[in-house]
Amino acid sequence: AKEEGKNHYKWFDGTEEAGAAELMELRNGLRRALERGEFELHYQPQIEAASGRLTGLEALLRWNHPRFGQVSPQKFIPLAEETGLIVEIGAWALREACAQNKAWQDAGAAGLRIAVNLSARQFAAPDLVGTVRRVLEDTGLDPSCLELEITENMAMRNENLATLEQLRDMGILLSIDDFGTQHSSLSYLKRLPVGRIKIDRSFVSGIGVDERDEAIIHAMLLIARRLKLSVVAEGVESDLQLSYLLEHDCDEIQGYLFFRPQSAEQTGEVLRRIRHR
Ligand code: C2E
Ligand code: CA
Ligand code: CA
Ligand code: CA
Fold it and tell me: Which keywords describe this protein according to UniProt (predicted)?
């Protein structure tokens, strides 16, 4: 009985309750956040390894919560997926990112590409292709300047294939995010309309530390080249990682070594600075 009492006490020790209460408040606040404009996009540049040129940006969601401050997408995206609101939030992010990229292009950043993350729930919702087409029409962004990031699990689902092919046929670049971290077979790379892969940070962080990570990255770069896919390495933080990736002909680099994700305003500054150099 003593043990039971102890467990009971531990279970309700308040920190658990606070966590659950916070999660509930976040979950309940998602719709309001969408309606009141509490979401914001930050942008992280992608750098062409060979030239050092800024070629694209990844749009990353931020939630400016009235009580909790800036909430990480790691926390609220799972809640948005649970409630299904990710479909609307994702559509908002797509429209915002495309409109912003068009504005930057018109201000001189010709050909700049914007990458937007998709959630599995957006594939299950009706008419993802129609949503994307309307956003491109309304914003005037060229489809070749839009990249959509999907995960291996989304790519592997047979029922998503027709959708992916339609998006590719519109001229959109499809990329596999967090490549190598989920359950998948390599054979899907040959039958899917995908143009590039993003090497996950968990492999990049092993460069210079774990030969097995280096072997995996090396193999990914070889297979991508043979399949004519371009490769972005994510989470690049050190010169050592950069030189390994350069040496093995990785196409593009994304990571804190060059830029952290930053607000639209700060990103606009970076784009201006680069152009006037
Ligand atoms: P992700 O798509 O893999 O995005 C990369 C994450 O790595 C971002 O975290 C980015 O800030 C972080 N990162 C970039 N460079 C470095 C680096 O050099 N070192 C380290 N340690 N981290 C780096 P963030 O912004 O917190 O986003 C987390 C995840 O939330 C994303 O992972 C993505 O899965 C999801 N997410 C963000 N925005 C959206 C969105 O609009 N829609 C959907 N469905 N998911 C999103
Ligand atoms: Ca991503
Ligand atoms: Ca990623
Ligand atoms: Ca990730």
Answer: Coiled coil, Membrane, Transmembrane, Transmembrane helix
β-sheet bridge partners, residue 145: none
Hey, which of 47, 77, 205 would you mutate to test ligand 1's pocket, going by the most ligand atoms within 8 Å of its Cβ?
77
| Confidence tier at 276 by pLDDT (50, 70, 90) | low
How do residues 85-131 score in pLDDT, each as one tens digit?
999 999 999 999 999 999 999 999 999 999 999 999 999 999 999 99
Q: Find tokens 């989304």 and name the residue.
A: 154
Give the chain's end-to-end CA distance (angstroms, integer): 74
- The structure's pTM equals 0.93
Q: How far apart are CA 271 and CA 114, in angstroms?
A: 13
Helices 15-36 & 73-83, crossing angle to 10 degrees? 70
The gap from C-alpha 233 to its chain's centroid, in whole angstroms, comes to: 12
**Lookup: tokens for 50:** 């060979």
Helical spans, DSSP H, in 39-187: 73-83, 86-106, 120-124, 128-139, 152-156, 161-169
The per-residue b/e assignment along 132-160, b for 16 or more CB within 10 angstroms, e otherwise, is: bbebbeebebebebbbbbbbbebbbeeeb
Residue for token pair 């500054």? 269
CA distance 224 to 196: 8
Q: Which of 43, 70, 117 to mutate to test the pocket of ligand 1 (most atoms within 8 A of CB)?
A: 117
Q: Is the CB of 117 under 6 A from ligand 1?
A: yes
Residues 6+ apart with CB under 8 A from 274: 54
